[in-house]
Automatic annotation (TrEMBL), chains A, B:
<dbReference type="GO" id="GO:0016746">
    <property type="term" value="F:acyltransferase activity"/>
</dbReference>
<dbReference type="InterPro" id="IPR010894">
    <property type="entry name" value="SpoVAD"/>
</dbReference>
<dbReference type="Pfam" id="PF07451">
    <property type="entry name" value="SpoVAD"/>
</dbReference>
<protein>
    <submittedName>
        <fullName>Stage V sporulation protein AD</fullName>
    </submittedName>
</protein>
<dbReference type="InterPro" id="IPR016039">
    <property type="entry name" value="Thiolase-like"/>
</dbReference>
<dbReference type="InterPro" id="IPR038369">
    <property type="entry name" value="SpoVAD_sf"/>
</dbReference>
């Protein structure tokens, strides 16, 4: 058998799966941001026609999956696996979105790293020879997240300067063993990293050490220089978290000039009052499906290292005085052959 | 490449991974039940020396993983992957248990099917050639689950007759590509099945259709008769859920004489006042690690179909009038060669 494992965290895929379809669905605020023109669908009503924010989030996932399947020219019945997760308690957005699709399903919890986690596992399952097609799906919704994690919207709470804004959005990608499109060539699985940050309004700082850890491992284990990638992009570290990662690399004598963050790409930070940037599973999901994958397909970029970042806390863990464990999964994407 | 996929949901592993270490850790009530003598560790104090039930649950996971690694003669640094999940919001038992282990980690959410889901994905990752060793871990705790899903213990709420009792317990298994021990030969991935049951105090009935669906798919796709297995065992359907599965098969003209349920094995239903039986991620996890794997190793059984069952609801989905989506993942286990 071919040697796939390059090091402690990274595997090179022997038969890189192809991304044949993708779609990003977003809410009103996101539809007023820099990615507006690229979303598959933007709702002017964040309820998406549903009776609760939670049901709206499920509706977004279903729309994204359906559109991604359309682009791939496939139906749900042709999927061998669907992998999905979200931020809601017991991941109900995903379970209720995938209910009725009749697809073998694995539920994930990776907080805001879920797009990268689901993409990683989908790619590994296809490369492992277990199926020909898989979907990776995730979502977040500002209103369901605020209600669950912080305070009901009606309270009109003041936000701290380090806070980020949960993206109302969903992303879905379809991977296949055959076809044309961008490919997943490497998967670097994250370890849980916790440097003791306890402020749930500063999750960029909590996740930055995990992002540094995974990106460093990926570069060391693949032997690639940062400049190999047109973009190294983290999930939702925001302004502050990105600076911390840059600082960590700077101390190693590495200037990560091509480091970007989805949290800084989804909104116009000057104009949209989102403090440190976007966050949530939907943040990296809509950036992947509406910016990076189209850009790879069109030849704007050739290599992107997509690094989903997640803060593995809960309101209960914070109430009990715990610090915030972070994780980051990296997926190396390459333009069409 | 060899053909691994047998049908819509089932794959046959080309190089069946070996279970080289396992351990079940349980609470006081479980330690007074039929499996008492087989647990790796039973605490007389359900706090496990921690200051909260949530921290106690994490402590159980760490103990189970540590003991499973000991049995395998391995350390955490030798694991290529750890896969874990639990019932708590944002799966904090798992994240905080795996924090500090320095292991590439994928978080899962499969509700009470998590032992089977983590075992499935761990086996697939090894069979796919992505690593040599992986761990699958899960837990549940009666007190953290009651507080989160139902009412605080202090209220002393009356339980309905169809209710089940969340097992205080954790299980961990170590899988390797080489070694001696029981093996994972097939993985049948569940689809989400929802037949409209809305009563969260009757989760056996909600999950039974998913169990039927997956077991039927497994048998059809492998061409195996039910009698091929010494035991076909569901996760935590309890008395009522098990009867529903038997009834579904009976209508198909199949008598599933060897169908058992972990929820009926962990407690003495006559003596321990648990109504319909045990439930929770820990239920099938302690039955797997303390009964089935030792029994396979000792030759008591040769083939077991281990079917984790999960109810993918949340308190919020129930409050919003939703029915309960169920899922069941099946793993075919075979005694040492």
């Amino acid at each position: 058998m071919e040697q796939k494992r390059l090091g402690r965290q990274t595997v090179a895929l022997a038969r890189p799966p192809v991304l044949t379809g993708w779609a990003g669905v977003a809410g009103k605020k996101e539809g007023e941001g820099p990615l507006a023109a690229q979303f598959h669908y933007v709702s002017q009503d964040d309820s998406f026609g549903e009776k609760s924010w939670e049901k709206a989030e499920s509706a977004m996932q279903r729309m994204a999956l359906s559109a991604a399947l359309d682009q791939a020219g496939r139906t749900a019945s042709e999927l061998d696996y669907a992998l999905a997760g979200d931020l809601l308690n017991q991941c109900i957005s995903s379970s209720f979105a995938l209910r009725g699709q009749e697809v073998p399903f694995y539920g994930l919890y990776g907080a805001c790293s879920t797009m990268a986690e689901s993409l990683s596992l989908a790619a590994l399952l296809l490369d492992g020879g277990f199926g020909a097609r898989a979907a990776a799906v995730t979502s977040s919704h500002f209103c369901s997240a605020e209600r669950q994690y912080r305070t009901p919207l009606e309270y009109g709470s003041q936000r701290t300067p380090t806070a980020q804004w949960t993206v109302t959005g969903a992303g879905a990608v379809v991977l296949e063993t055959e076809g044309a499109g961008p490919r997943v060539t490497h998967v670097t699985t994250g370890k849980i990293v916790d440097k003791g940050v306890k402020d749930p309004a500063n999750m960029g700082a909590a996740m930055a050490p995990a992002a540094y850890d995974t990106i460093r491992a990926h570069l060391a284990e693949t032997g690639r220089k940062p400049s190999f990638y047109d973009l190294i992009v983290t999930g939702d570290l925001g302004e502050l978290g990105r600076e911390i990662v840059l600082d960590f690399f700077h101390r190693d004598g590495v200037e990560l000039k091509n480091l970007s963050d989805c949290g800084l790409l989804v909104y116009d930070l000057e104009r949209q009052d989102v403090h440190c940037g976007g966050s949530g599973c939907g943040c990296s999901a809509v950036a992947l499906t509406s910016l990076f994958l189209p850009g790879l397909k069109q030849g704007r970029w050739k290599h992107i290292l997509f690094c989903g970042t997640g803060a593995l806390l809960s309101p209960t863990s914070t109430q009990q005085g715990e610090s915030i464990p972070g994780i980051c999964h990296a997926v190396a994407l390459e333009g069409p052959a």
